[in-house]
Amino acid sequence: MINKGTIALGVILGTAIGVSLGVLLAPEKGSDTRQKLKDEAKNVKDQLTKDVTEVKEDLVKSAVSGKEALEKNLENFASSASYKTENAITFLEKQLAVLKEKNKKLQKTA
Length: 110
Description:
2 helices
């Protein structure tokens, strides 16, 4: 799967290579060519920094969103487990009451 960062990196690298070749093949003085290459390298670096920052921000947002979803799911699970535990306790209390009643009958006859 190709993500936004990969596409941006490809576009930037393609642009940088194209501009660099154009500058190298253009009939200009060496100092002018070197300056243009430096300027283009700075532009590429700035764009890469921006893209990395955006990807990082997207990852942080995804992590926060995932954490919130996990916390909500855990809360729902805890609530559901609590109801089921309450039902189990109620069932056991009823069974205990039945056993106590049987035990009382046994005590009277003994």
